[in-house]
Design goal:
Blueprint: E1 13-14, E2 16-22, E3 25-31, H1 38-41, E4 51-52, E5 60-68, E6 75-83, E7 86-94, E8 101-107, E9 112-117, E10 120-121, E11 131-136, E12 145-150, E13 156-165, H2 172-176, E14 182-183, E15 190-199
Parallel strand pairs: 1-14, 2-15
Antiparallel strand pairs: 2-3, 3-5, 4-5, 6-7, 7-12, 8-11, 8-13, 9-10, 9-12, 13-15
């Protein structure tokens, strides 16, 4: 058994290919916990070592720069009202018709006390670390109404990301280079567009 290859068509390597745009820069990322297959590495100038990809994750992927962004990042309208304990921040998300998932990252500085999505209260974990992730995983999330009950009057930035299924057509060559000893897993290949939403001080 020790002489067999690490991966095969029967026991393949998990490897997703994701096109990412963030802060005006674009890249392809190969998401895998194992070394990048040689066939995929030969298809583009992927980094020698895994690198950070998302500003809200500690995960590292093999990446290849793709120049400037091509798509519009998701946005949100922001409306605020004062409350007895701080303020109520109402967000109306604006993703695209292709959105399959929306990700909202709320920083610790928001002093979040309660969170509501389309009128439904979302339970908050008892342990608050650096940030809270809100994942909304249906197509209608692209236009969800999110309400944050905040105990802070200071300004802060939210990270808002839209994830689409599949990669753009110009990534077909990279996808085709994935060998039959590697397969998509979980969410699979995708496109991630990342933007910022500024919440001004009140």
């Amino acid at each position: 058994a020790g002489m067999q290859p690490a991966f095969s068509a029967v026991a393949p390597q998990r490897l997703n290919i994701v096109y990412v745009e963030n802060a005006g820069n674009a890249m392809f990322a190969a998401d895998t916990t194992a070394p990048l297959p040689q066939a995929l590495r030969a298809s583009a100038a992927f980094s020698a070592e895994p690198q950070p990809v998302y500003p809200f994750s500690h995960d590292r992927d093999y990446v290849v720069p793709m120049g400037a962004s091509r798509y519009a990042a998701p946005t949100a309208d922001v409306a605020q009202t004062a409350t007895s304990t701080g303020r109520r921040i109402a967000l109306t998300l604006h993703g695209s018709a292709d959105a399959g998932q929306m990700v909202l990252v709320i920083p610790k500085s928001a002093a979040l006390a309660a969170l509501t999505v389309d009128g439904t209260r979302v339970p908050l974990g008892s342990e608050w670390k650096d940030q809270i992730f809100l994942l909304c995983t249906t197509g209608d999330c692209a236009h969800a109404n999110v309400v944050l009950e905040s105990g802070s009057k200071a300004g802060f930035d939210l990270t808002l990301a839209e994830r689409r299924f599949g990669v753009p057509a110009f990534g077909a060559r990279i996808v085709a280079a994935r060998p039959d000893t590697a397969v998509q897993s979980r969410l699979g290949d995708g496109t991630m567009l990342i933007g910022k939403v500024a919440v001004p001080a009140r």
